[in-house]
Amino acid sequence: QLDLVESGGGLVQPGGSLGLSCAASGGSSGVLTMAWFRQAPGKEREFVGAFRRSTRTTYYADSVKGRFTISSDNADNTVYLQMNSLKPEDTAVYYCAAKRQHVITSEIRQSRAYDYWGQGTQVTVSS
Length: 127
Fold this sequence. Notes:
Layout: E1 3-7, E2 10-12, E3 18-25, E4 33-39, E5 46-52, E6 57-60, E7 68-72, E8 78-83, E9 92-99, E10 116-117, E11 121-125
Parallel strand pairs: 2-11
Antiparallel strand pairs: 1-3, 3-8, 4-5, 4-9, 5-6, 7-8, 9-10, 9-11
């Protein structure tokens, strides 16, 4: 079992910044891929970004590229999502996801590729 705990959500004005973190515990040494997804009210869950430890590669959705940055600590037990230049359309519940195995590039943006999910943290961008 792998537990994922997100933190850092909140209310921010348009153009502002916010950082999220996701800490993995419970045998996290075998976690090879971690990702962020988000779900706005009335919409489907969508991919935000992912970090693959085996290749040290990051992936981003086009909607956040250049504004959001994913990073990980040296032990790769925690993944961070730094969000800059936030827009009202970024408002959503943000979820951390993980898979112990390597997720191939063609699947890394798909929620079904991940086995473990955090509880979600609300991000609201509003003036």
